[in-house]
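Narrative summary of target 7.
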Amino acid sequence: MNLQATKLELMQLILESKNKDLLHALLRMLQSSGGPSTSVVKLTASEKQAVQEGLDDFENGRFTDFEEFMKEFR
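Modeled conformation, tokenized:
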């Protein structure tokens, strides 16, 4: 998967997420990175759980098609 496709997939997952802990963790991670780096971000237990729940949802097909989701905003 190329970088552009990865960014689009990430945007789709973020837009579809209803998990505030996960979104806050992602925001903190991106803001603290200051750009491309290999730094490690420490997640709280609830943030780790939120990330795992999001991954589990994705792996089990519990997500909305991006085009269907975007129809609400067009």
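The chain has one domain: 1-20+41-74.
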